[in-house]
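(Fold this chain)
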Amino acid sequence: MISEGFVANGAKVYIASRDAKACEETAAELTAQGPGSCIAIPTDLLKLDDCKRLVSEVQARETQLHVLVNNSGAAWGAPLDEFPDEQWSRILTLNLQRAFTLTQLLLPLLEAVGAEPRGNGNKENPAAVINIGSINGLNVPHLENYSYTASKAGLHHLTRHLSQVLGPKGITVNTLACGPFDTKMMAFSMKNFREAIEDGNPMKRHGRPGDVAGACIFLASRAGSFINGATINVDGGFHLAAKM
């Protein structure tokens, strides 16, 4: 959804996924739609060496990176007394640590944007890091997805911390706390509980592609250049809805 929004507005977009076939098919489809382009770099972000290879491939093609969207994530649910230990390290690595890893590794390309003459001393045209969080990092869900909620809450605070370090370098760092969208991760819930999910939302619907794409484009644009360290809820107000 986010990639499609940027490509539709003329951007060159790199996407990474451990599913090489899906990654490459999506890149071809988005490039065909245009007017921008999409390039696939299949990557298993759980593996640090794969992250380094991804960054090397981007560095070989680009001298600057205007926008980094840390979007890859996973979830796991199980009762408290059955929750597997390995699903803590897996979920926290992918959802939280790798957002830090990629920001760290891509920092030279992000800094190069703020160093441009048109950057006006890193003030007017900053690069943007956008972390995709969750309303589950703000509230306590009914689901027993302990490692997921912890990872997203951690990501929200990591965003705030990085914003203070990277802001002076001409890089904004913000989070979108997303509610329910029609994604692969939400496929089971949407198939079985769509009506209840939409009925429980103040807007009486789930998120549309343009909702999250538009929010990212806003943060990456001149209009969002003075927003730094924010957590923006993209959920129709669902996180505020009364549960009793």
Observations:
- Helices lie at 2-8, 20-33, 48-61, 86-105, 107-114, 146-166, 187-199, 209-220.
